[in-house]
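Hi,

I'm pasting everything inline rather than attaching a file, because the server keeps stripping attachments. The sequence lines come first, and each chain or strand is labelled.
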Amino acid sequence: MDWEQLLGLSVRLLDAHDSGHSPGAATPVVNEDRAGRMDGLWLNMATELLEYLNEYEAATNESWVPLDEFLCEMSDRHNVTEDDVRWVVNLLSTPTRLTTISVNDVGDVAGTSSTKATALVERPRYKTLNKCRLTRQGRIAVKLAKGVQGVLYSQYDAMKIILALHQGDFLSALNQADAVNQEVRGFSQELTRLLEQPVSLETREAYNKQKDAYLDAIQSVDKTAEQALVLFNTTGVKESFSAWAEEFGPSAPSEAAFRERLRDTVRSVNSLSGHMRSMIGELVSAEREVVGNVDFTRVAIQLVFSPPNENELASAIMSLGPWAPTSILPDASDLLGILPPTNDTRTFTDLTFDEAVLDSESQTILVDFLTTYGPLIRETLRSGQSVSLTKAISEGLVEINNQLALSELVGVYVSPDWLQMDDVVLRVGFKNNGLNMKLPDGGQLWGDELILEAVPREGEG
Amino acid sequence: MNMIEMGQVFAYLLKYRYVESKSGDQKRHRPGEGDIAAILQSCSPEAFESFQQFLDGHGLQLREYRDTDFKGIAPGGRIWLMMRNPTGVVAPYMGVDRLHQMMALRENESRLTTSTWFLHVWLMYLALIYTRLGRGVAEVSKYQDAVFTKTQLVEAVVSHLEQVRRIGVDKGAEETVFAILDAAKGGEVDRRVNSFLDLMRDAALIVSIDSDTYQQTLLGAAEFSESYGRTLQHYLHIEEGGVDGLENVTNILMADSPEENREGSAHVSD
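And the predicted assembly:
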């Protein structure tokens, strides 16, 4: 990486910025020497840190980079303490204010503006962890030092992979592939991050303006990366690869590993080009709404004043709280469906209310029930007595031919017409919770008691 | 993905909630994760869609992300998250019974007590990983920044309780909630926070980094971002950027100076 060039490009600008020279005063002599130790010690650690963070991030795609290894390496190399190295981390993570003058269209001074976005690295807010990462500025610094100019230029970087493959410069092809991969990944993640925030009008317009350029660039990178993969699989390039690998020595990547690295690039670019159209579309749309900051501490206090009701609270927890399967074992009722229906009281004859069916040969339980118990029930009702469900069950009317006939018995209360007593009016009443009976199959029946009674048709009010 | 594989993937997801195709430097594969990831990675779009429909019947959905979407996914890797569908119907086997069991400190503690405790610890947790970081609810990308320690969470809950006590019923705190939170004795907050963290970790909404430090998972962040507006915000009546009538709260907290005993016995009725 060319830090010297980057620094050389900006050092005098920085001097201009830092100058305390007052307008009108005698012009000070510009010094060719710089202050400091002039041995490049701290600068080396600073640039090494930026490169280390960049490489680690590329290799792991983690947010935070552990520093232990770096601290150890630097203190060994320069024979300094780890605290000395930490001071460099501190230096790069402390922002400083830069002031610039803005000029309007007609060339007049419009005002000054300042920025503190100058920290190149940042540390986690929780200081317990020995970690750090590049800030956006830090990433740009690394990019500039590398001479990479953003995703729009990645198409040229992708072409360099092909060039390098043709040249037989496989190490450079690999580095190019990694650089493209990292650039594409970074750009894609940047888009995701932007989608998660309310975006300023300027950003939206900038993306809107460059939308097509981005899409073209990515599609071209996509095509080129695939071409590179195809090219690598040709016999000529394969042969030149094995020759190169032999010359390179035992640390050369295997052919399979090399192909996998190229494939990684193709995959990243593929997935980005798939998403990008919709992501940029969403980003530039004005209607996009994102949920921003919520002060949950105050929410908690407010909910002490006006708590949600118990149902709302349960729903809130169920929707976003930690859930777990309530039971590991199935409930017994879940298994009933697969048991043989020993007690099946269903009939498979279609229910019709045609007398012909009742008279037919096919003796369903209902027909059996009505022919066997019908006369008894009718007789009881005609004698002026009522027939309660309890009474019917206790007299054994719930069983016929050793089969439970509960539905048939209850059916009589639901459709008294089955009894065919046209000369009287049949009335069904119920007594709240008046029923509690043991059934012949061992089951228990409880609930409302049903009572059937007959009233003469004549003389009724 | 055939039916057997679909069953394997679902069974795995029921336990672990997400699958990663590659384990990064700082993580290790969970048992069987590689096989499950291989099934998902090699399945056809049609099979993936069928699996989505199957999950839909459970009120769940599967989200796939790549290293190009978020930090924390190994280069070239993918992650699949099983998330609740905010508009779906909750499957009957999904429940929070364990939550009530674990949050309870005493026998027969009511569900209102355990849910109220959970809610308040939860809000303090959310304050730590969103409010404190100046992080919007939609900012899923920052999940790796969402690191907090148990000590911080306990301190946040303790200071919340102090504030609740300062408000008291006479300044408008709802009596039941006040009674539940005010009853906390020494060490109790610690135990409830422990249970909270265990529950969140078992549901893969957070991971523990070391004995005292935790981090939100991508699942936790993605589900929260997707569902917040439709569920939590709605059920708890949280207004955009705050809650109804927050000015009153602020006024009460600001005017924290001990006021003269105004009508101290006004609440004694009956």
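Chain A touches chain B through 63 residues (CB under 8 Å).

If the labels don't parse on your end, tell me and I'll reformat.
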